[in-house]
Design a protein that fits this description.
The protein is α/β, with parallel strands linked by helices. The chain is built from eight helices and 16 strands.
């Protein structure tokens, strides 16, 4: 699901005049320090939709004619656009505070399309300089970044505010360093699966799919990937294990995709390990494009009554939904060893690939985009 940054305008992107609170001529247009530099980096490196939400008291009335507003708004948007900062939507409320309209922040009527369940609001933010921006965040179920370090009293909204600052550099570093934790679930007529994943965990977790061998394989991800994973799946095992294993691959892939949306400093690695007579090679690239290649050379075609081809299906589902490039090559005589070696090598490769160099400032690519 898409995450959103709902960004206030006056006092957050551009300075707000403290006498009239209206930017109504070019002499009053001052961009907030470093907003262009860091908003541009956020736009390029992270996966948020940008939505501007602003109250412009009495816009279109004698107190704030359109002709005083639009040239400045259009100029500001052009400057942003030229620096790679595009807004997916802009919402401007024109009412006065005393009208108490539901469209005016902290009212949510202007952004109702974002409240229909298709957006990941719990991991979205409102960035604004007033407590009404924080209240707006609370009303739409987001967290808030209060762009006003002079605010000392946040009253009942302290649980909504994740960061108080007046620095766009701090906002950038905060968003970049957000915990890579994902909670997600998937329900179909065939399976119900829920999971919690923390890429920066300590290697703890619990897996219950009703398929002991598959649980054992996913536990390799916890142990050798050094990540936290709690996964519970209830599938139509009375038919066979196909839907459960496939859908776990889909949901895990989605969770990894969401957890790695900030790609700065990510490694891109592979791993190779033996298990008795079996040798597994896994190469993985979290570059944002999915590709899957599988080679399993083993005379045994089942393991724990599960066809080996179902594990190919699991990894393919994972790679497609995590949008990664995944190559797995296994050679051996014993399918149990081969599959287990594949999961272990996969866990090690993923562990290395999702590790971040916290001092890196570049994307791990020469293309400038992942
Ligand atoms: Mg403001």
């Amino acid at each position: 699901m898409k995450k959103v940054l709902f960004i206030d305008r006056d006092g957050t992107l551009i300075s707000e005049p403290q006498d009239t609170f209206q930017v109504d001529n070019f002499g009053k247009l001052i961009f907030i320090k470093q907003v262009i530099t860091f908003l541009s980096k956020i736009r390029k490196e992270m996966d948020y939709e940008f939505v501007m939400v602003t109250n412009q008291d009495g816009l279109g009335t004698a107190s704030f004619p359109e002709s005083d507003f639009w040239p400045i708004q259009n100029f500001m948007m052009k400057v942003f656009e030229n620096e790679g900062i595009t807004f997916d939507a802009v919402f401007i409320d024109r009412s006065f505070p005393e009208q108490n309209l539901p469209t005016r922040k902290p009212g949510t009527a202007m952004v109702s399309k974002y409240l229909n369940g298709n957006y990941d609001l719990a991991n979205s933010f409102v960035i604004g300089d007033r407590i009404t921006d924080v209240e707006f965040a609370k009303n739409i179920g987001c967290k808030a970044i209060l762009f006003n370090s002079e605010t000392k009293e946040t009253g009942p909204y302290s649980s909504v505010i994740e960061l108080v600052t007046d620095s766009w550099e701090t906002i950038y570093n905060f968003l970049r360093g957000i915990d890579r934790k994902v909670i997600c679930k998937r329900t179909t007529s065939e399976t119900q699966i829920s999971l919690f994943l923390n890429l920066d965990g300590k290697g703890v977790g619990k897996v219950g799919t009703g398929i002991p061998f598959f649980d054992h394989m996913l536990e390799q991800l916890i142990r050798h990937g050094n990540m936290d994973l709690f996964l519970n799946a209830k599938g139509d095992l009375q038919i066979d294990s196909h839907h459960t294993i496939e859908d776990c691959g889909i949901l895990l892939g989605q969770a990894f995709y969401e957890a790695t949306t900030v790609k700065i400093g990510l490694n891109r690695y592979g791993f190779e390990l033996p298990m008795d007579e079996s040798l597994a090679k896994v190469a993985v690239d979290f570059g944002g494009r999915s590709y899957f290649k599988w080679s399993f050379k083993c005379p045994e075609t089942t393991v724990a009554d599960i066809p080996v081809s179902l594990f190919e299906h699991f990894f393919r589902s994972f790679a497609e939904h995590a949008r990664i490039n995944l190559h797995i090559k296994v050679k051996g005589r014993n399918a149990h060893h081969g599959i287990e070696a594949a999961f272990k090598a996969f866990a090690r490769a993923v562990k290395m690939a999702v590790q971040r160099n916290s001092f890196a400032t570049d994307l791990p690519t020469t293309k400038g985009l992942l």
